[in-house]
Amino acid sequence: MAAGRSEPPQYGFQPAVLDEGHGQQFGMGVISSQPGAMGGVAGGGTAPGLQYLAHVDQLLVQQKVELLEVFTGFETKNKYVVTNSMGQRLFYVVEDTDCCTRWCFGPIRPFDIRVLDSQQHEVLHLSRPLRCQGCCCPCCLQELEVTAGGQVIGLVKEEWAFLRPKLTVMRPDGTPVLRIGGPICQCALCSDVSFPVLSADRSREVGNITKQWSGCVKEMFTDADNMGVSFPMDLETNMKATLLGALFLIEFMYFERQN
Questions:
Q1: Residue 230's CB: how many other CB atoms inside 10 A?
Q2: DSSP secondary structure of 53-101
Q3: Residue 189: its pLDDT value, please?
Q4: With the C-alpha atoms ordered 250, 251, 255, 259, is the resulting torsion angle positive or negative?
Q5: How large is the average pLDDT for residues 255-259?
Q6: Residues 35, 49: contact at Cβ < 8 Å?
Q7: For residue 39, how many other CB atoms are within 10 A of its CB?
Q8: Do 33 and 117 form a contact (C-beta atoms < 8 A)?
Q9: Which of 66-75, 96-105, 182-191, 247-256 has the lowest mean pLDDT?
Q10: d(CA 176, CA 165)
Q11: Which of 15, 140, 161, 175 could staple 33 via S-S, CB 3.0–4.6 A?
């Protein structure tokens, strides 16, 4: 990120800390949102600040409605809240782009997205370079780099496909871990749009990324979306974080509108 950008404001949400009752209900101990609360997980160590992901199999993402955008059509920085299935806030997510980039490039714009914990510490950084989009551009496909603590922990790359969306979730060395498919038409009226998460060999479905229908008024007059991602509970934490990054890439590719 460029130097001189201001620190994000204090958003004031509480950290997601399960009490003993909830911990026992889901077969786990008390979970702290503080870095270093837990050790590594299967397939490698856990990046600091992401330990809570080891105990969830679903994340919900709600984009905040920006009134300036609604009334003027001026594209503002996207902001999101990430919660678990019980509604506990885990992360606050903010886009870091300038107004010229948002105005000129619209949904295909390059971005840096910061994922912050309850103390406003950055736990994930998502970087998307400027790429063309569409089946006519097989040599310039979409990609996303996910970093934590200055280390790359995962990659998401689009595969060329004529009709259906195809993306691959990879380790930093380029090893495929998961595949993501999608429908031919991403515009479903009054219903959710599903992007199945498949095993690396595409033999079975192991999760889902879903764009949830938000109601006629919100869908017509804003580009604020509600989305969710599900994955196996025992999936390594860094890959869960990379799938969260894939959700944001899909949101920009298929559901972000040019005002």
A1: 18
A2: GGG-SEEEEEEPPPHHHHHH-PPPPPEEEEE-TT--EEEEEEEE--HHH
A3: 63
A4: negative
A5: 63
A6: yes
A7: 9
A8: yes
A9: 66-75
A10: 16
A11: 15
Measured at the alpha carbon of residue 242, what is the angle toward residues 147 and 60, in degrees to the nearest 5?
120
Which of 29-33, 50-54, 118-122, 175-179 shows the lowest per-residue confidence on average (mean pLDDT)? 29-33
Contact 61, 224 (CB under 8 A): no
> Which of 207, 236, 224 shows the shortest CA–CA distance to 40?
236
User: Residue 248, Cβ neighbours under 10 Å: how many?
Assistant: 25
Beta strands in 134-248 (DSSP E): 143-148, 151-158, 167-170, 176-180, 193-199, 205-212, 226-230
Q: What is the DSSP string of 29-61?
A: -----STTSS--BTTBPPPTT-GGGGG-SEEEE
Q: Residue 139 in contact with residue 148, Cβ under 8 Å?
A: no
Q: Which backbone phi and psi does 251 adopt, to 5 degrees?
A: -60, -45
Amino acid at 183: P
- pLDDT tens-place string over residues 139-176: 678 899 999 988 999 999 998 877 788 999 999 999 99
For 114, the token pair is: 């910061």
- Report the b/e string of 207-223 with b at 16+ CB within 10 A: bbbbbebbeeebbeebb
